[in-house]
Amino acid sequence: MVAAEEVVAVVGKNKMLLAIDLGNTSIHLAVLKNSKVIKVYYFDKTISTSAFKIKLLQTLKIIKRNHNAIADIIVCSVVPPLNHIVRGQIKNIFKINPLFVGEDIIVPIKNNYKNPKQVGQDRLVCAYATKCLYGAPAIVIDLGTAITLDAVSKSGAYEGGIIVPGIRLSFESLFRKTALLPKINNIEAPRKLIGKDTVTSMLSGIFYGYGEMLVGLIDRISRQLKGRPRVIVTGGYLYLMKRFIAHKIHKIDRDLVFKGMALLSSK
Q: pTM, whole model, 2 decimals?
Protein backbone atom coordinates (compact mmCIF):
# COMPACT_ATOMS: atom_id res chain seq x y z
CA MET A 1 0.00 0.00 0.00
CA VAL A 2 1.28 3.48 -0.90
CA ALA A 3 1.69 5.78 2.09
CA ALA A 4 -1.09 8.30 2.59
CA GLU A 5 1.32 11.21 2.30
CA GLU A 6 2.50 9.96 -1.10
CA VAL A 7 -1.03 9.58 -2.41
CA VAL A 8 -2.01 13.07 -1.26
CA ALA A 9 1.11 14.50 -2.83
CA VAL A 10 0.49 13.09 -6.30
CA VAL A 11 -3.29 13.51 -6.59
CA GLY A 12 -4.29 16.79 -8.19
CA LYS A 13 -0.73 18.09 -8.45
CA ASN A 14 -0.54 21.89 -8.79
CA LYS A 15 -4.32 22.11 -8.69
CA MET A 16 -6.34 24.37 -6.41
CA LEU A 17 -9.71 22.96 -5.41
CA LEU A 18 -12.64 24.19 -3.34
CA ALA A 19 -14.30 21.25 -1.55
CA ILE A 20 -17.61 21.98 0.18
CA ASP A 21 -19.07 19.73 2.86
CA LEU A 22 -22.71 20.67 3.43
CA GLY A 23 -23.82 18.95 6.62
CA ASN A 24 -26.87 19.02 8.84
CA THR A 25 -25.64 21.68 11.27
CA SER A 26 -22.80 23.44 9.46
CA ILE A 27 -21.16 23.96 6.10
CA HIS A 28 -17.39 23.67 5.72
CA LEU A 29 -15.59 25.05 2.67
CA ALA A 30 -12.02 23.82 2.31
CA VAL A 31 -9.43 25.20 -0.09
CA LEU A 32 -6.95 22.54 -1.17
CA LYS A 33 -3.70 22.89 -3.08
CA ASN A 34 -2.00 19.74 -4.30
CA SER A 35 -4.76 17.89 -2.41
CA LYS A 36 -3.64 19.39 0.90
CA VAL A 37 -6.05 21.51 2.91
CA ILE A 38 -4.64 25.02 3.25
CA LYS A 39 -7.69 26.82 4.67
CA VAL A 40 -11.15 25.91 5.95
CA TYR A 41 -14.07 28.34 6.16
CA TYR A 42 -17.28 27.37 7.93
CA PHE A 43 -20.51 28.70 9.37
CA ASP A 44 -23.60 27.39 11.13
CA LYS A 45 -26.27 26.07 8.76
CA THR A 46 -29.07 26.07 11.32
CA ILE A 47 -30.31 29.49 10.18
CA SER A 48 -33.11 30.55 7.87
CA THR A 49 -32.77 29.78 4.17
CA SER A 50 -32.48 33.47 3.31
CA ALA A 51 -29.78 33.99 5.95
CA PHE A 52 -27.96 30.88 4.70
CA LYS A 53 -27.96 32.26 1.16
CA ILE A 54 -26.52 35.59 2.29
CA LYS A 55 -23.87 33.97 4.51
CA LEU A 56 -22.86 31.60 1.73
CA LEU A 57 -22.54 34.48 -0.73
CA GLN A 58 -20.35 36.42 1.69
CA THR A 59 -18.14 33.40 2.38
CA LEU A 60 -17.71 32.57 -1.30
CA LYS A 61 -16.70 36.17 -2.02
CA ILE A 62 -14.05 35.99 0.71
CA ILE A 63 -12.73 32.71 -0.68
CA LYS A 64 -12.67 34.12 -4.21
CA ARG A 65 -10.74 37.16 -3.01
CA ASN A 66 -8.22 35.12 -1.01
CA HIS A 67 -7.81 32.20 -3.41
CA ASN A 68 -8.36 33.38 -6.97
CA ALA A 69 -6.61 30.34 -8.49
CA ILE A 70 -9.41 27.88 -7.68
CA ALA A 71 -9.99 25.79 -10.80
CA ASP A 72 -12.55 23.21 -9.66
CA ILE A 73 -15.31 23.03 -7.08
CA ILE A 74 -16.86 19.86 -5.67
CA VAL A 75 -19.75 19.62 -3.20
CA CYS A 76 -20.73 16.79 -0.87
CA SER A 77 -24.20 17.50 0.50
CA VAL A 78 -26.55 15.69 2.87
CA VAL A 79 -29.08 18.53 2.63
CA PRO A 80 -30.56 18.24 -0.92
CA PRO A 81 -33.07 21.13 -0.52
CA LEU A 82 -30.14 23.56 -0.33
CA ASN A 83 -28.22 22.18 -3.30
CA HIS A 84 -29.76 24.55 -5.83
CA ILE A 85 -28.79 27.55 -3.69
CA VAL A 86 -25.20 26.33 -3.36
CA ARG A 87 -24.92 25.59 -7.07
CA GLY A 88 -26.35 28.97 -8.04
CA GLN A 89 -24.14 30.99 -5.69
CA ILE A 90 -21.01 29.16 -6.82
CA LYS A 91 -21.78 29.80 -10.50
CA ASN A 92 -22.54 33.42 -9.66
CA ILE A 93 -19.23 34.07 -7.85
CA PHE A 94 -16.75 31.70 -9.49
CA LYS A 95 -18.32 31.19 -12.93
CA ILE A 96 -17.67 27.48 -12.37
CA ASN A 97 -20.25 24.70 -12.59
CA PRO A 98 -19.61 22.68 -9.41
CA LEU A 99 -19.64 18.89 -9.29
CA PHE A 100 -22.06 17.40 -6.75
CA VAL A 101 -21.10 14.03 -5.31
CA GLY A 102 -23.84 11.52 -6.05
CA GLU A 103 -25.23 13.60 -8.92
CA ASP A 104 -22.41 14.70 -11.19
CA ILE A 105 -19.78 12.31 -9.87
CA ILE A 106 -20.29 8.86 -8.36
CA VAL A 107 -18.07 7.59 -5.54
CA PRO A 108 -16.22 4.60 -7.11
CA ILE A 109 -16.68 2.14 -4.28
CA LYS A 110 -18.84 -0.99 -4.27
CA ASN A 111 -21.84 -0.21 -2.11
CA ASN A 112 -23.37 -3.25 -0.39
CA TYR A 113 -26.16 -1.33 1.35
CA LYS A 114 -29.57 -2.94 0.81
CA ASN A 115 -30.74 0.32 -0.76
CA PRO A 116 -27.54 2.09 -1.93
CA LYS A 117 -29.37 5.42 -2.33
CA GLN A 118 -29.96 5.59 1.43
CA VAL A 119 -26.26 6.01 2.24
CA GLY A 120 -25.16 9.59 2.86
CA GLN A 121 -22.64 10.72 0.27
CA ASP A 122 -20.31 11.95 3.02
CA ARG A 123 -20.11 8.40 4.42
CA LEU A 124 -19.23 7.00 0.99
CA VAL A 125 -16.62 9.70 0.39
CA CYS A 126 -14.94 9.00 3.74
CA ALA A 127 -15.04 5.24 3.11
CA TYR A 128 -13.47 5.77 -0.31
CA ALA A 129 -10.80 8.11 1.07
CA THR A 130 -9.98 5.61 3.81
CA LYS A 131 -9.68 2.78 1.30
CA CYS A 132 -7.34 4.83 -0.92
CA LEU A 133 -5.23 6.47 1.78
CA TYR A 134 -5.11 3.95 4.61
CA GLY A 135 -6.11 0.62 3.11
CA ALA A 136 -8.75 -1.98 3.91
CA PRO A 137 -10.34 -3.50 5.88
CA ALA A 138 -11.19 -0.43 7.91
CA ILE A 139 -13.69 1.09 10.30
CA VAL A 140 -14.41 4.77 9.65
CA ILE A 141 -15.78 6.73 12.61
CA ASP A 142 -17.25 10.18 12.00
CA LEU A 143 -17.91 12.12 15.20
CA GLY A 144 -20.26 14.74 13.80
CA THR A 145 -23.89 15.77 14.29
CA ALA A 146 -24.59 12.06 14.15
CA ILE A 147 -21.91 9.53 15.04
CA THR A 148 -21.40 6.98 12.28
CA LEU A 149 -19.27 3.87 12.17
CA ASP A 150 -18.81 2.53 8.65
CA ALA A 151 -17.24 -0.77 7.63
CA VAL A 152 -14.96 -1.19 4.63
CA SER A 153 -14.27 -4.83 3.81
CA LYS A 154 -10.91 -6.37 2.98
CA SER A 155 -11.89 -6.23 -0.70
CA GLY A 156 -12.51 -2.48 -0.41
CA ALA A 157 -16.31 -2.52 -0.49
CA TYR A 158 -18.58 -0.34 1.61
CA GLU A 159 -20.48 -2.82 3.79
CA GLY A 160 -22.74 -0.50 5.77
CA GLY A 161 -22.53 0.78 9.30
CA ILE A 162 -24.05 2.14 12.47
CA ILE A 163 -25.68 5.52 13.20
CA VAL A 164 -26.27 7.00 16.67
CA PRO A 165 -27.13 10.53 17.86
CA GLY A 166 -24.10 12.77 18.15
CA ILE A 167 -22.72 14.40 21.28
CA ARG A 168 -24.49 17.76 20.91
CA LEU A 169 -27.77 16.09 19.96
CA SER A 170 -27.60 13.99 23.12
CA PHE A 171 -27.06 17.03 25.33
CA GLU A 172 -29.89 18.91 23.61
CA SER A 173 -32.21 15.94 24.07
CA LEU A 174 -31.46 15.78 27.81
CA PHE A 175 -32.16 19.50 28.15
CA ARG A 176 -35.37 19.49 26.13
CA LYS A 177 -36.90 16.32 27.51
CA THR A 178 -36.18 16.81 31.23
CA ALA A 179 -37.37 19.46 33.67
CA LEU A 180 -34.28 19.84 35.86
CA LEU A 181 -31.29 19.18 33.62
CA PRO A 182 -29.60 22.37 32.35
CA LYS A 183 -28.57 23.35 28.86
CA ILE A 184 -24.82 22.96 28.35
CA ASN A 185 -23.39 25.49 25.90
CA ASN A 186 -19.71 24.80 26.54
CA ILE A 187 -19.22 21.13 25.71
CA GLU A 188 -15.94 19.83 27.10
CA ALA A 189 -14.57 16.47 28.16
CA PRO A 190 -15.00 15.72 31.89
CA ARG A 191 -11.96 15.49 34.16
CA LYS A 192 -13.40 12.78 36.38
CA LEU A 193 -15.70 9.82 35.91
CA ILE A 194 -17.97 10.51 38.90
CA GLY A 195 -19.52 13.96 38.60
CA LYS A 196 -19.97 16.07 41.73
CA ASP A 197 -22.58 18.36 40.16
CA THR A 198 -25.24 18.05 37.48
CA VAL A 199 -23.25 19.50 34.58
CA THR A 200 -20.17 17.36 35.15
CA SER A 201 -22.40 14.32 35.69
CA MET A 202 -23.97 14.96 32.29
CA LEU A 203 -20.57 15.46 30.65
CA SER A 204 -19.28 12.26 32.21
CA GLY A 205 -22.34 10.31 31.13
CA ILE A 206 -22.06 11.36 27.51
CA PHE A 207 -18.30 11.19 27.05
CA TYR A 208 -17.53 8.05 29.05
CA GLY A 209 -20.75 6.47 27.84
CA TYR A 210 -19.99 7.16 24.19
CA GLY A 211 -16.38 6.10 24.69
CA GLU A 212 -17.39 2.70 26.06
CA MET A 213 -20.00 2.34 23.32
CA LEU A 214 -17.49 3.10 20.56
CA VAL A 215 -14.89 0.72 21.98
CA GLY A 216 -17.48 -2.04 22.14
CA LEU A 217 -18.78 -1.36 18.63
CA ILE A 218 -15.26 -1.28 17.18
CA ASP A 219 -14.62 -4.72 18.68
CA ARG A 220 -17.91 -6.11 17.39
CA ILE A 221 -17.43 -4.76 13.85
CA SER A 222 -13.82 -5.97 13.82
CA ARG A 223 -14.96 -9.51 14.52
CA GLN A 224 -17.24 -9.41 11.46
CA LEU A 225 -14.62 -8.08 9.05
CA LYS A 226 -11.95 -10.38 7.63
CA GLY A 227 -8.45 -9.22 8.48
CA ARG A 228 -7.49 -6.67 11.11
CA PRO A 229 -9.34 -3.44 10.32
CA ARG A 230 -7.68 -0.08 10.83
CA VAL A 231 -9.75 2.46 12.74
CA ILE A 232 -9.84 5.90 11.12
CA VAL A 233 -11.54 8.74 13.02
CA THR A 234 -12.78 12.07 11.69
CA GLY A 235 -15.44 14.67 12.54
CA GLY A 236 -15.83 17.84 14.54
CA TYR A 237 -15.84 16.19 17.97
CA LEU A 238 -12.87 13.90 17.42
CA TYR A 239 -10.44 15.87 19.58
CA LEU A 240 -12.87 15.91 22.51
CA MET A 241 -13.51 12.18 22.19
CA LYS A 242 -10.11 10.84 21.20
CA ARG A 243 -8.79 10.12 24.71
CA PHE A 244 -11.78 7.88 25.40
CA ILE A 245 -11.01 5.63 22.42
CA ALA A 246 -7.32 6.42 21.84
CA HIS A 247 -6.16 2.81 22.27
CA LYS A 248 -8.41 1.75 19.38
CA ILE A 249 -7.47 4.49 16.89
CA HIS A 250 -4.95 3.94 14.11
CA LYS A 251 -5.31 7.35 12.46
CA ILE A 252 -7.00 10.68 13.16
CA ASP A 253 -7.82 12.60 9.99
CA ARG A 254 -10.02 15.64 10.42
CA ASP A 255 -9.80 16.42 6.69
CA LEU A 256 -10.83 12.95 5.52
CA VAL A 257 -13.94 14.06 3.61
CA PHE A 258 -12.01 16.83 1.84
CA LYS A 259 -9.22 14.45 0.86
CA GLY A 260 -11.87 12.10 -0.49
CA MET A 261 -13.36 14.87 -2.60
CA ALA A 262 -9.89 15.75 -3.89
CA LEU A 263 -9.41 12.15 -4.94
CA LEU A 264 -12.78 12.21 -6.72
CA SER A 265 -12.06 15.49 -8.51
CA SER A 266 -8.85 14.04 -9.96
CA LYS A 267 -10.60 11.11 -11.61
A: 0.89
